[in-house]
Design goal:
Layout lengths: L2 E7 L3 E8 L4 E9 H9 L6 E4 L2 E4 L1 H17 L7 E8 L4 E4 L3 H6 L7 H4 L9 E2 L7 H11 L2 H8 L8 H11 L1 H5 L3 E4 H10 L7 H4 L5 E2 L4 E2 L1 H7 L3 H4 L11 E2 L2 H7 L6 E2 L3 E2 H8 L8 E5 L3 E7 L11 E4 L6 E7 L3 H10 L4 H9 L9 E3 L16 E3 L6 H18 L11 E4 L6 H11 L3 E2 L6 H17 L6 H5 L15 H22 L3
Parallel strand pairs: 1-6, 6-13, 6-14, 15-21, 21-22
Antiparallel strand pairs: 1-2, 2-3, 4-5, 5-8, 7-9, 10-11, 12-13, 15-16, 16-18, 17-18, 19-20
Bound molecules: D-xylulose.
């Protein structure tokens, strides 16, 4: 027992969350927002470098700098980091980090005198990392599918059809566009494995939860697929970091953190996983049939499954759960907070005004609809950005607010059918889950109760729980996942939002109209 730290390296921020397993409660939560600290230095906007042609990247050295800042802040706030027994983490999925042959040595030599960014300045073979918002790899998706023998073969093998944002197509594009830099790349890892490597002071393998977001991992054996690797890029088998079980210790924390921040020398590091797989754990979805919604930069709807049910339409993704046994089905809507913030900013509102707009408008929005494609969309696939308005006055701030939220909720219902899971309740997390008015719309559209939790950082909580579970298992005193999750991943008493029968009826009618509008528009892109 003791304290465990979960880190979540997401698109816009780095969060640290400490759990106290003796007291059964969350001890501390702290977030470093990338734009607030690094916007000018790294040229980012909402954590992202937009490089044109659909290329969306971020900067691995910025994440390293954020890690230093987060740990320093925790210390300054009086956190005794020597009490942390183990650390695990979560990373935005699919992003790839390219390291040269000095990386392993530089990581191994990390010492406390200078910040990470300085000591690791020379380890990248590509200064930026393509992330999940990148849509530039349609050609590579087709080539990868063709290379393994067709779309269906890739789907059966990896659980997923090829997606632009997945790591495999991204790696293939890099190998093709910059063969010299690709040749100088000794190691390719994911955001998750990079962050874990910073902590362990050595190259940490990829976990199966995040490995399944690459189009390169056999979903059932949880190992890289030689066939997919061969179809992706030259010598990938040698460059790609191996896959390790999510709960196998990666090693002790690097001495850097012991001398600089006062961690105990024995503090263990566990492999990081993807943010969505960690949220699955952080919301207690360790048994099949439970469904959750994460309202973050992207909105994701996901469920725990005992078999890897696949989405033939390419509507959803399937990942291995970091619990080592189950799978997760996931649908990723790119226009999550991105779209909410676009409407908020266009009408010069704050979140309170946003909530009021929802309160003052009727369910169904008097027939006004929006397709909220402020950026190209993943589900349904929309290649070009451009919000579509139907009987909606773009000057009417209140109607615009309702339209964007209703669109997100209706779309999440329409596109979750393939999961084959009857949604009887929704567990919610992510920044926007703090907004009750938004949650009411989701409860009414899905016609089910929506449960809220103490923290909106389910990914960081899931990571902390993974550290605890791994630590107990490594000590020879394993605990079942249900018991690990139970004290932390429980809905806040009295916080459940029930659907309103009248509003539910309005949406049951409206959904067909929204589906038609979506279909008409999809035909035009
Ligand atoms: C999931 C996805 C995003 C990222 C960023 O497939 O692309 O949810 O993990 O959070």
């Amino acid at each position: 027992m003791g304290k465990y730290l979960g880190l979540d390296s997401s698109t816009q921020s780095l969060t640290g969350l400490i759990i106290d397993t003796d007291a059964g409660r969350i001890d501390t939560e702290e977030t470093v927002n990338f734009d607030a600290h690094f916007k000018a230095a790294y040229g980012i906007d909402k954590g992202v470098l937009h490089l044109g042609g659909g290329q969306a990247h971020s900067a691995p050295l910025m994440w390293a700098e954020a890690l230093d800042l987060l740990l320093q802040t925790l210390r300054e706030k009086g956190c005794d980091l020597s009490q942390i027994r183990a650390i695990a983490g979560s990373g935005q999925q699919h992003g790839t980090v390219y390291l040269n042959n000095t990386a392993a040595k530089a990581l191994g030599q990390l010492r406390g005198a200078a910040p990470l960014k300085e000591q690791l300045a020379g380890i990248l073979s590509r200064p930026t990392a393509p992330i999940w918002m990148d849509t530039s790899t349609s050609a590579q998706c087709e080539e990868l599918e063709a290379g393994v023998g067709g779309r269906q073969v890739l789907l059966e093998l990896t659980g997923n059809t090829a997606f632009e944002r997945f790591s495999g197509p991204q790696i293939r594009r890099f190998a093709h566009e910059d063969p010299a830099a690709y040749r100088h790349t000794a190691y390719i890892g994911l955001v998750s494995s990079f962050m874990a490597s910073l902590l362990a002071g050595k190259l940490v393998p990829v976990d199966p939860g995040d490995g399944s977001g690459t189009n390169l991992m056999e979903i059932r054996s949880r190992q890289w697929s030689p066939k997919a690797l061969a179809a992706c890029a030259p010598e990938l088998e040698r460059k790609l970091l191996p896959i390790t079980p999510s709960d196998r210790p990666a090693g002790p924390l690097s001495p850097y953190y012991v001398s600089r921040y006062g961690f105990a020398p024995g503090c263990q590091v566990f492999p990081f996983s993807g943010d969505n797989p960690c949220s699955l754990i952080g919301l207690g979805l360790v048994e099949p049939g439970q469904v959750a919604l994460s309202l973050g930069t992207s909105d994701t709807l996901f469920a725990c499954m005992d078999q890897p049910r696949v989405s033939a339409e390419g509507e959803g993704a399937v990942f291995a759960s970091p619990d080592g046994v189950h799978y997760m089905a996931l649908i990723c809507f790119l226009n999550g907070s991105l779209a909410r913030e676009a409407v908020r900013d266009q009408h010069r509102l704050d979140w309170q005004g946003f909530g009021e707009a929802l309160r003052h408008t009727p369910p169904g929005n008097q027939g006004a609809l929006m397709l909220p494609y402020f950026a190209p969309e993943i589900v349904p696939k929309v290649a070009r950005a451009g919000a579509v308005r139907h009987h909606l006055d773009p000057q009417d701030a209140q109607a615009e607010v309702r339209a964007v939220i209703e669109a997100q909720a209706l779309s999440s219902k329409i596109h979750s059918a393939w999961m084959g899971v009857a949604i009887r309740s929704l567990c919610v997390t992510g920044g926007a889950s703090a907004n009750e008015e938004i949650l009411k719309v989701f409860a009414d559209v899905h016609g089910c109760p929506v449960h809220r939790f103490e923290t909106a950082n389910a990914a960081a909580l899931g990571a902390a729980l993974r550290a605890w579970q791994g630590h107990l298992k490594a000590a020879g005193t394993p605990k079942p996942w249900k018991e690990i999750a139970a004290p932390f991943a429980k809905p806040l008493p009295g916080s459940t939002i029930q659907p309103n029968p009248a509003a539910k009826a309005v949406y049951a009618k409206l959904i067909g109209e929204y589906r038609d509008l979506e279909k008409r528009h999809a035909g035009l892109t």
